[in-house]
Amino acid sequence: MVLASVMQARIELVPGISLSNVSYGGPVNATEPKPLDRRLNLKADATLAFWPRQDALPTEIQAFAEDHEVAESLVAAGFVAAHVADRDAAAELLDNHLEELADVQAVWLIYAKGNRADINRDSLWTMLVERGWRPVSNISVNDVYSSIRIRPLKPGETGLHK
Known about the structure:
162 residues, alpha/beta, Rossmann fold, 6-stranded mixed β-sheet, 8 strands, 27% helix, 24% strand, globular
């Protein structure tokens, strides 16, 4: 009770701020989340490639083809979205296409979240490091899918946490 009175007293000192829009001592961010293309760092002039095919990806990712050129091959793209449905699909991509992906500006692996598949961020990390790659960032695509951006390891880099 005393804490609530102190918090309310503090908040009332700031004009326009009420308890209804405060979370953990600060205003709630009422802005819309960044659009998916911005969170994926998809440039307006990027050429896309989809793996294994465009219709295997979430509709939010497929929609990018409406505003971007789609390459015929992975090596011709500046942005690759790859759906890895399970451990076997991830191994197929990583074992057969990493050389093609090495010079692509942005490579994203899209996978089912919430243990809906036999892979997750951590198992993908292990698979990547074993092949000389590492995850760079992780984002949520929607309620069903997550995505990690990956890149080759730099000389001397281990890919493991420091």
